[in-house]
Amino acid sequence: MSFSQWPLGQIATQIPGAIEVLFKHKINFCLLAQKTLKEIAQEAKLNDTDICEELQNLSVQEHESINYDTLTNPELIDHILIRYHQVHRAQLSELIELAQRVELVHIEESLCPTGLARHLYQMKVDLEQHMMKEENILFPILCNEFAPTVQGPISVMMEEHVDHMQDIETIYEMTNNLTIHEDACGSWKALYADLKKFITDINMHIYIENEILFKRTA
Prior knowledge:
Elements: H1 8-14, H2 18-24, H3 37-44, H4 48-56, H5 73-106, H6 116-142, H7 151-174, H8 186-213
Helix pairs in contact: 5-6, 5-8, 6-7, 7-8
């Protein structure tokens, strides 16, 4: 089976473990959900044949299988709150602490991600404000069957999603695409491993909101 003509959103949600493969190739699928793998590969100068082979060889055990289409808005929102909002708050607090530790010890090294802790702190502030607006304004509206005023808040949230992805690009730039050098200490390795998990999670979080929850109002 070839996945080249599949939209990225379909790949991410229907193929076991696909998110890890997309992450490996630095494909932030959440804002490119409607584009096919072939289109993205051509734009990014990637080999879609190799990526398709990786997708074909994935293990089912790695996949979080949820049929989002069967969930009501309140059920889907509860999932977002528990699986992503709560998790992001904990992730960023831990990432900031790890980044501070790495920068303190390795500040003289050329590959040290200098400034990463400050960047993550600002991301935490921005993401916290974003999630609070969803929790206090948008999500209550979406739980109401009749929500004529919802498009304005949705537009704001989607614009902020783009900002979050730009922040992720900055993380890639500051960490040499999360590349671990051979002499990296345990804290440095843990930092980059946790950053990979955070980036994977925020991609899926934004995808679920943009392409599933918000599209129900169209």
